[in-house]
Amino acid sequence: MHRRTGTVLNRLRSGILAILCLCPCLSLLAPAAAATQSAPTIDEARLAAAMQAADFAGTVLIAKGEQIVFERAYGTVEPGGKALHRLGRIWRWASVSKQVTATLAMQEVAAGRLDLDQPIARYLPQSRAPHAATLTARMLMQHVSGLRHADDFAPPDKDGWATFYTAPLGSAETGVPWCEGPTGKPDKAPPADFRYGDCDFILMGAVLEAITGKTYAALVRERLARPLGLRSLGVFPTAKRTVPGFEAGKPESRFFRLENFGPAGALYGTTHDLLAFDRALMTGKLIPPAERAVMWTGEPRYGYAALGQWAFESALKGCDGAGVRIIERRGFIGGVVLRNIILPEQDMVIIMTSNRASAEATFGEIWQQAGLTHDVLAATLCKAS
Fold first, then answer.
1. Helix, strand, coil shares of the chain as percentages rounded to 5?
2. CATH number of the domain at 6-381, out of 3.30.720.120, 3.40.710.10, 3.30.428.10, 1.10.340.30?
3. Which residue has the higher pLDDT, 7 or 357?
């Protein structure tokens, strides 16, 4: 009942490998190479049909370069309610936070303060994490750490949520103290099998705090919010009002604590904030091209998981020629679901948000050429029929 992207993304590895390994990888061109291309002619009839068929509730933003070429809100905030979704509201970013955390990590790599392939014990000498003497930042950000998973222990606490997500932050039952505990499964030195989990990025956040001497919230504020002018960006807990989530037609659980997700899922902001982050990432304002290329290199063995995101190539229905290189980051906690899609060679960004848990299935899989995410991409990039 704990609805996040973990189970779906673990299943993604086996399927995406079968499809994507048939396509040659595109070169890591700088996004600026496509900056002179004209704005896309979006097939709005195809887009509208896809939204209607999905009974979509949320928002869609499509940008080319610095220009937003399409932005619209759909449906009602509450299932069956009267208040409509509107643009400009603050959304929980959920696991899109992992993409931000990876970017902060690559800033440290660029500065020479973090080595992706050095053991985390170099930065966290007191760490109790299993195999801290061999576990690396790269392994954490590719989810092959072998760290424990909240859903593997004890029955769920409240509304199907594991205690890890309901316990007070700072207690031994959540955060870094819990993530560094024994796995409860046969021990395996990393790199272990790919398994998507929040502890990987919670521990990555601890490494960043140790290197910089600053809290994760301070890093987000000083390196992203202030320099990029993102007034809505922040880290839970907060008194700001964010878009509420719904599961199975009812308000989501009120028991899970968003702050417990930390560097793995505790960010919030508007879609314009997220677009500004994406653009700063694409244009080299946040990290140099060399570090971005490392972060955006999908590993076939792990279902094309890159560092904090997925990087792969996929064909789209109705598009001629080779497949499109896609940088995808998903977010899904409770009843809020996001897709953050970067298309480097097209110099484009597509951001979709929904406050229905059912949207996780509706968004589908791009590489299967099925689901709403694929259909939005196809309506954006393929010639109108």
1. 35, 20, 45
2. 3.40.710.10
3. 357
